[in-house]
Amino acid sequence: MSHHIVAVEDLKFNYPDHTPALKGLSFTIYHGESVAIVGANGAGKSTLLLHLNGFLAPTNGQVRIGDSLLTCDTLQEVRRTVGMVFQDPDDQLFMTTVFDDVAFGPLNLDMTPEEVKKRVEDALETVGVTDLAERPPHRLSTGQKRRVAIASVLSMAPDILVMDEPTAGLDPRARRRLIELLATFKHTKIIATHDLDMVMDLCERTIVMHAGEIKADGRTTDIFADNDLLKSSRLEKPLRMQGCPACGG
Q1: Which of 31-35, 73-77, 107-111 comes out lowest in average pLDDT?
Q2: Domain for residue 71, yes or no?
Q3: Domain containing 213: what range?
Q4: What is the pTM of this model?
Q5: Left, alpha or beta for 41 (phi > 0: left; psi -120 to 50: alpha)?
């Protein structure tokens, strides 16, 4: 793909009972951007992300990744370009060791054992968990699982990184380490999250969703300064923008 652009056009999705979850979303994300998708529970954030590499198929509309329209014929190509980190790392880790989990994707690309080993070692080193290679994933902490899940995506060398609530369940230290790690990635990043302070650290652009629609799309600082928008979308300002609760400063 010559340009790693994510283009969503009039995307609609209905649940099996015909309840609309996405109501005609349109936006374009360009190579190298870091974009947050924010909104209250039920806004449609996770449903949107699952369309970006074909886990869900739209009821209407289309998703284009680079030069490719996302279809059954292009699905494998798109999934090599768009790496998805799920909200719950246990949904992503299923092998007996960390090494095997991170190696699973490259092995399915028909790489040589030497190439797979290099991919795995590089990915584990990038997220700082090389010492966990022989550990069973189910015995790791939530923060360690999150890093291994990211490594399992990085081993595929994606150009676009899509993450659903990456800081959920992390303690403050693990959260800070993850934010610092994500800040080093040069990938296009699309992050659905309730962690608006993390958004301030990582994303120059924010898309606000509410009830399956896009309410706003713009600079993060402008979005979070719009009190009426945040209130109507059932959001609150990041903690760092709320001032001192005692003195109001």
Answers
A1: 107-111
A2: no
A3: 33-43+82-237
A4: 0.90
A5: beta
